[in-house]
Amino acid sequence: MLADHFPLLGLRVRTPRLELRLPDEDQLAALAELAAGGIHEPDTMPFLTPFTDAPPDVVARSVVQHHYRMRGELTQDKWALPLTVLSGGIVVGAQSLEATEFAVTREIGSGSWLGRDYQGTGIGTEMRAAVLHLAFAGMGAEVARSESFDDNPASARVSRKLGYADDGTARHAVLGRRRTGHRFVLTREAWERHRTVDVAIDGLEPCLPLLGADGSAAS
């Protein structure tokens, strides 16, 4: 099996409603089509990398290329897991987890998006809770960070609900405009105090060496 050579393909993170995984070909096609259908209001841009500012066919192709690129570039020193989120077997969005020199820093970052039909249903909170459990309980992370723009209050609400604290601001240039990003930080202690979602992880142990994690934490 391909997962014998690239065990991240066998990783599954599950909550009461969701499953997060690296997508198979059909799921990746569904994810691309979901993004192409629009995932935010056309007059806004909630992403630092404005991948949705393109015709639908280009957006779809960029999603596919992004997933293949992240798999191909993954190393212990720098990696990103572009997980696809399924609810009832239906692709509803994407939730990423990423780190640089994780073995040293024990710090992760995250990013996400949801199809328009699934926004405002609590799925965004549940899927972020899932990858936080993967990071803290499964991989031994000590710190998680997130950032969102002024016009993306939904992301900020998710961060605060899960226990993140404000961590200052940053300036970015997006599509030729200056944007202010609000930073958030979550410690292991704060994560433990705010845990409310049941999460199960399967297939993690063989993945740990690929991610620079020593497996000392129980999943």
UniProtKB/TrEMBL annotation:
Q: Which UniProt keywords apply?
A: Acyltransferase, Transferase
What SUPFAM superfamilies does the record point to? Acyl-CoA N-acyltransferases (Nat)
GO MF annotations for this entry?
A: acyltransferase activity
Pfam families of this UniProt entry?
Answer: Acetyltransf_3 (PF13302)
- At the top level, the lineage of the source is Bacteria
All residue ranges annotated as the N-acetyltransferase domain in the record: 18-189
Documented EC number(s) = 2.3.-.-
Under the heading PANTHER family, the entry gives: RIBOSOMAL-PROTEIN-SERINE ACETYLTRANSFERASE
Could you tell me what this protein is called? Answer: GNAT family N-acetyltransferase
> Native species of this protein?
Prauserella salsuginis
What lineage does the source organism belong to? Bacteria, Bacillati, Actinomycetota, Actinomycetes, Pseudonocardiales
